[in-house]
Specification:
The chain is of the alpha/beta class. It is 35% helix and 21% strand.
């Protein structure tokens, strides 16, 4: 690494990424945000059947008014690993800035209205960076919401856990799975893939498409496309890795934006899925 690259990386490592969608996708005011997150988690826990702790989750990432209750179903289940998990490896799609890799934000923490979450770059991810699969791209993360919206839930459910935030660009699912395999099933690590389902279809069609997508996820079929899930690459990567490890997926809940305040003419679909050791 050149001296200038080392200097740039050192400067980036001291930065804290500011929230980009606080006040848009979720409340910016800390007390209100905490109350909303805790209320959604409480409702999710009431619906929880007390299943075992998951090794991985698929969680939606829209505004909380739309997908928050569905996201809470997944994060509430992660609460069974509170005090055990010290890092969350998180993959979410890069919606705004293209990149032909998995992108790290190049910061030491990602801030939220509930406080900062430490960013960790484990040795396994450093190895993937040396191979060119992982890059440091603050611009990819600057306005990206797919990972950010998960952080208030993470701080509420797994306080003190660090995050390995990987924005997924144009890479093949089997390559993205290389960032999941080293951590899947580790007692100190939770893997989270952030993804919504179909986008902007009429309600009846959206439900039909989403039901078919969920059926394939539960069958560990890693053939989801980006019309069916905006985070398809991360979802497929997790399905590949989960199949190799023998994990069992379980649907925790699904919904659409029309279930809250969205129009039934153009809806977005959501699902919460947990993956368990047999």
């Amino acid at each position: 690494m050149s001296q200038s690259s080392q200097s740039q990386q050192s400067q980036q490592s001291q930065q804290v990424r500011a929230p980009a969608v606080a006040g848009l996708f979720y409340p910016a005011e800390p007390a209100r945000l905490r109350a909303d997150v805790e209320a959604m988690l409480a409702a999710a826990r009431r619906a929880d059947d007390g299943g075992t702790a998951p090794a991985a989750l698929i969680v939606p990432h829209a505004g909380y008014v739309y997908s928050g209750p569905t996201a809470a179903l997944a994060w509430a289940r992660a609460g069974a690993r509170r005090g055990q998990v010290r890092r969350v490896v998180m993959l979410g799609p890069a919606h705004r800035v293209g990149v032909r890799a998995l992108a790290l934000p190049g910061c030491r923490a990602m801030d939220t209205p509930l406080g900062p979450v430490e960013v960790e770059v484990p040795a396994q991810i450093e190895e993937l960076a040396a191979a060119g699969l992982v890059v440091t791209r603050p611009d990819v993360h600057a306005a990206e919401h797919s990972l950010e919206v998960q952080l208030p839930f993470l701080t509420a459910v797994l306080p003190g856990a660090s995050v390995v935030p990987l924005a997924v660009g144009w890479v093949a699912p089997d390559r993205a799975a290389e960032a999941i395999r080293p951590f899947l099933g580790r007692p100190d690590t939770l893997v989270v893939v952030s993804s919504d389902l179909s986008h902007y279809l009429p309600l009846a069609e959206a439900r039909r498409v989403d039901e078919a997508t969920i059926e394939r996820i539960l069958a560990l079929r890693a053939d989801i496309d980006h019309e069916e899930a905006c985070g398809a690459t991360g979802v497929n990567a997790l399905l590949l890795a989960a199949g190799e490890r023998g994990l069992v997926p379980r649907l925790l809940g699904s919904a659409t934006s029309a279930d809250t305040i969205g129009s039934p003419d153009r809806v977005v679909g959501y699902a919460a899925v947990a993956f368990y050791e047999e």
